[in-house]
C-alpha cells in the first residue's frame, strides 16, 4: 500500500501522535490527511434525473449489412460485433432509492463504433410525457419530492405530480403507460427499450429514411404486480441490480447472457405525412408511437450483456450518455424534445463530472482512434503532442489531424423555411386517441392493474380537485376505466370530460405489441423458483425439482428456517440460499413448498413463512406443494377449496417437469385471490 504520491505505507491503523500513544494528532501526518481529504471528496453530484442506475458491458452483433439504409458503422457488416456499455435506471428517485419504484426505466446504450461513439439513450416506454423540451424541468420538479417537505422519495403518488399531469393533457398517453405494469418490470432483462424519438438513417448516397429504434428482450416481457413491488422494495431494494449482476454471473457458467434484439421501424417522410391525415399523429411528437401493426419492427441485430463492471463508480456512475453522440449514417429530426435533449446532456455532464474532459474517462472514451485540438482543462489526460494545436497550420504531418470530407460526419442538408415562431404544432394536438388504443390493447387483467394503479396514486393525492381533474382526462380515454377509478376513489360526482382539442378516435385498432402478458416468454428460462424447505425435505423431490429447473434454464433457491441449511430425507445436507425472513416469496417467480410433516408444523408458527405462502397465492404465482404443506397453506389462509390450477401437488419427482413447464405462463391469472 502506498499514498497517492506512491510513498509506501508502514502503518494504516494509527494516526501520528505527539508525546506518546495518548497524545494529540500531529498536523504533519500527511498520510492521515491525504486519506481523509480524498474520502471527503468521494461524492460527485448525482444525475438530476436517472440517478439510480446499473450498467454492464457487452456487444452488439449485426445480422446483415444495412448499407442501403445507413452508413452507420455498427450496421455495415454481417456478424460485426460492436462493444457496448448499457445503463438501466429509474428516473425520479435518488441514487439510493429502491429499484421497484413505479417509474419509467432508462435504457441507455453506448456503442463504441469504429466511427466514434453512438449513444442510443432510450427508455422502456416508447412515448414521453411532454412534447417540448421547455417543459422538462417542470415535469421533473413535479415528479421529484415536493420542495418544502422533501418527500415522497422515488414516487409519483403525490399532489404535485398529478397536479402537473392533470394540467398537461399531452401527458395522458404516458400516464397510461406508467400506470401499467411497464413501470414495475420484473427485471431489466425482461423489458423492452425504445429510442422514443424518430431519428434518421442516412446511407452513403445521402438518402434519408426515418427510423424508430426498439430493443426486444430475447426472454420475453415480464413485470411484477404492485403489491409485490411494494414488498420487494423493503425486502431487496437492489432487486434489479442484483438480478442483472446475478444473471451475468450465471451466464459465465452457462454461456447464456441477457440479450435483446434491436429492431427498426423504418418509414419515409411521405408515410409520416400521410399518417397525420389518416391516424392523427405526427412522428415528430414524442407522445405518440407508431403501432407495430402499421410498421413492423424488423430485427437487425442483438445486444448481449456479458461482462459485469469492475468498479461501479468508474463505469456506471461516470458513464456519460448524450443524444448528440451520433456517427455518420445517423441523424436527428425536428422532434422538439430531441433537440432540447441534444443541449441538455453535454451541459449536465460538464457539471456532474467536473469539467469538459469527461471523454477522457475510459468508459466514455471512444475505442477508435481520435485526434483533435481540444486541450487543457481539469484533469486533462490526453494531451496534444507537438507544436500544432490550431487549424489550419503549416506543421506536420505528425500529430496534426486534418478534416476529411469523405469520412467525416455530414449533417443531412434538410431544407427549412418559414417564420420563427414559439408555438406548438397543430399536428401534435390529439392527446387521447393513442392513450385509448393503449388501454384497449391490454388484457382484462392488465386493465385492472391500470385502474388500480390510478386509484392507488390518486388516493395519495390529498387535493380532491386534482383527483377529479385526472379522472376528467380518463373520461376521454375510456369511460369504463374512468368510472372504475372514479368509483374506487369514491368521487362524490363524476367530472365532465376534459376539454379536448381533438376528439378521441374510436377507430384505432388494438395492438397486441402493447401488452406485456401477450408478449410473455416461451420458456421459464432465466426465472427463479424459491423452494421453502425444512429438515427432512423429500430428497427425491428436491433432486427432481433441481433437475427440472436446470433443464429449463431456470434457477432454484432454497429458503429454510436457518441459513445453515437443511438435511434431506436421505441425510444429505443442503445449504440455504436465504433464511426465511430474508427470502420472501416476492423475490421469486414461482414457489415450491417442500417441508417435511414436522417442518410444516414448525413453519406454521413463523410469520415470514405464512407471508411467503399467502403472498405467493395472492400474487397469482404457481405454487408447487407437497401434501405435508397442507397445514402451512391453511395457516396462510389457503384452504383446500382454494387450490386451483396454479397450485400443483408434487407427489413424486416426475411431477416436477410438468410444474416447471406450467410456470412458463408466469402467473395463474385466473386465480380468485
Ligand atoms: Fe433524459 N436526461 N432528458 N430522457 N435521459 C438525462 O442526462 C433530458 C428524455 C434518458 O444512464 C440527463 O446525463 C431532457 C427522454 C436516460 O446516464 C439530462 C429531456 C428519454 C438518461 C436529461 C429528456 C430520456 C437520461 C440527466 C426532455 C428517453 C440516463 C443525467 C427534452 C428517450 C442516462 C444525464 C444514463 C438522463 C435531460 C427526456 C432518457 C438532465 C432535457 C424522452 C436513459 O441531461
UniProtKB/TrEMBL annotation:
Keywords: Heme, Hydrogen peroxide, Iron, Metal-binding, Oxidoreductase, Peroxidase. SMART domains: Catalase (SM01060). SUPFAM superfamilies: Class I glutamine amidotransferase-like, Heme-dependent catalase-like. Residues 387-419 are annotated as: Disordered. It catalyses: 2 H2O2 = O2 + 2 H2O. PANTHER family: CATALASE (PTHR42821), CATALASE-B (PTHR42821:SF1). Belongs to the catalase family. HPII subfamily. Decomposes hydrogen peroxide into water and oxygen; serves to protect cells from the toxic effects of hydrogen peroxide. This is Catalase. It comes from Alienimonas chondri.
Amino acid at each position: 500500500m502506498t499514498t497517492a504520491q506512491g510513498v509506501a505505507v508502514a502503518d494504516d491503523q494509527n494516526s501520528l501522535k505527539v508525546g506518546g500513544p495518548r497524545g494529540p494528532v500531529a498536523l504533519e501526518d500527511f498520510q492521515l490527511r491525504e486519506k481523509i481529504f480524498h474520502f471527503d471528496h468521494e461524492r460527485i453530484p448525482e444525475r438530476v434525473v436517472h440517478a439510480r442506475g446499473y450498467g454492464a458491458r457487452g456487444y452488439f452483433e449485426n445480422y446483415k449489412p444495412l448499407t442501403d439504409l445507413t452508413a452507420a458503422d455498427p450496421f455495415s457488416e454481417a456478424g460485426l460485433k460492436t462493444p457496448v456499455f448499457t445503463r438501466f435506471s429509474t428516473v425520479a428517485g435518488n441514487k439510493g432509492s429502491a429499484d421497484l419504484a413505479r417509474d419509467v426505466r432508462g435504457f441507455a446504450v453506448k456503442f463504441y463504433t469504429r466511427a466514434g461513439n453512438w449513444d442510443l439513450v432510450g427508455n422502456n416506454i416508447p412515448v414521453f410525457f411532454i412534447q417540448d423540451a421547455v417543459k422538462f424541468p417542470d415535469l421533473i420538479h413535479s415528479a421529484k419530492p415536493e420542495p418544502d417537505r422533501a418527500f415522497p422519495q422515488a414516487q409519483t403518488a403525490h399532489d404535485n405530480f398529478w397536479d402537473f399531469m392533470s394540467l398537461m393533457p399531452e401527458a395522458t398517453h404516458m400516464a397510461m403507460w406508467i400506470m401499467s405494469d411497464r413501470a414495475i418490470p420484473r427485471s431489466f432483462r425482461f423489458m423492452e427499450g425504445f429510442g422514443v424519438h424518430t431519428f434518421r438513417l442516412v446511407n452513403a448516397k445521402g438518402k434519408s429514411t426515418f427510423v424508430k429504434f426498439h430493443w426486444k428482450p430475447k426472454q420475453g416481457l415480464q413485470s411484477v404486480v404492485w403489491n409485490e413491488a411494494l414488498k420487494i422494495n423493503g425486502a431487496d431494494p437492489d432487486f434489479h441490480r442484483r438480478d442483472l449482476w446475478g444473471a451475468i454471473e450465471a451466464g459465465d457458467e452457462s454461456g447464456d447472457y441477457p440479450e435483446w434484439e434491436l429492431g427498426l421501424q423504418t418509414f419515409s417522410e411521405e408515410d409520416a405525412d400521410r399518417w397525420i391525415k389518416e391516424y392523427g399523429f405526427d412522428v415528430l411528437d414524442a407522445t405518440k408511437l407508431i403501432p407495430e401493426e402499421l410498421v413492423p419492427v424488423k430485427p437487425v441485430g442483438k445486444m448481449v450483456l456479458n461482462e459485469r463492471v469492475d468498479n461501479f463508480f468508474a463505469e456506471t456512475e461516470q458513464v456519460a450518455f448524450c443524444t448528440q453522440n451520433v456517427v455518420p449514417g445517423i441523424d436527428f429530426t425536428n422532434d422538439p424534445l430531441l433537440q432540447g435533449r441534444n443541449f441538455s446532456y453535454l451541459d449536465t455532464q460538464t457539471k456532474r463530472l467536473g469539467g469538459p474532459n469527461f471523454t477522457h474517462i475510459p468508459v466514455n472514451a471512444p475505442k477508435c482512434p481520435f485526434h483533435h485540438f481540444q486541450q487543457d482543462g481539469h484533469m486533462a489526460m490526453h494531451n496534444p503532442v507537438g507544436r500544432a494545436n490550431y487549424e489550419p497550420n503549416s506543421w506536420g504531418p505528425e500529430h496534426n489531424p486534418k478534416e476529411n470530407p469523405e469520412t467525416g460526419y455530414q449533417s443531412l442538408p434538410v431544407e427549412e423555411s418559414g417564420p420563427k415562431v414559439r408555438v406548438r404544432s397543430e399536428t401534435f394536438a390529439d392527446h387521447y386517441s393513442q392513450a385509448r388504443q393503449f388501454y384497449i390493447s391490454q388484457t382484462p387483467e392488465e386493465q385492472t392493474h391500470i385502474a388500480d394503479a390510478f386509484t392507488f396514486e390518486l388516493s395519495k393525492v390529498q387535493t380532491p380537485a386534482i383527483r377529479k381533474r385526472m379522472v376528467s382526462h380518463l373520461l376521454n380515454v375510456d369511460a369504463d376505466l374512468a368510472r372504475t377509478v372514479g368509483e374506487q376513489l369514491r368521487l362524490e360526482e363524476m367530472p365532465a370530460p376534459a376539454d379536448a382539442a381533438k376528439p378521441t378516435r374510436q377507430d384505432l385498432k388494438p395492438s397486441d405489441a402493447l401488452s406485456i402478458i401477450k408478449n410473455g416468454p416461451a420458456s421459464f428460462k432465466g426465472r427463479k423458483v424459491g423452494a421453502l424447505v425444512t429438515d427432512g425435505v423429500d430428497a427425491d423431490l428436491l433432486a427432481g425439482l433441481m433437475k427440472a429447473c436446470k433443464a429449463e434454464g431456470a434457477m432454484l433457491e432454497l429458503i429454510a428456517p436457518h441459513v445453515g441449511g437443511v438435511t434431506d430425507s436421505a441425510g444429505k445436507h443442503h445449504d440455504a440460499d436465504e433464511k426465511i425472513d430474508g427470502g420472501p416469496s416476492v423475490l421469486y417467480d414461482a414457489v415450491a413448498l417442500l417441508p417435511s410433516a414436522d417442518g410444516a408444523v414448525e413453519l406454521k408458527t413463523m410469520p415470514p413463512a405464512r407471508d411467503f405462502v399467502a403472498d405467493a397465492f395472492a400474487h397469482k404465482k404457481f405454487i408447487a406443494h407437497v401434501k405435508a404443506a397442507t397445514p402451512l397453506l391453511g395457516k396462510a389462509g389457503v384452504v383446500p377449496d382454494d387450490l386451483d390450477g396454479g397450485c400443483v401437488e408434487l407427489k413424486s419427482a416426475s411431477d416436477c417437469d410438468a410444474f416447471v413447464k406450467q410456470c412458463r405462463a408466469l402467473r395463474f391469472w385466473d386465480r380468485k385471490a
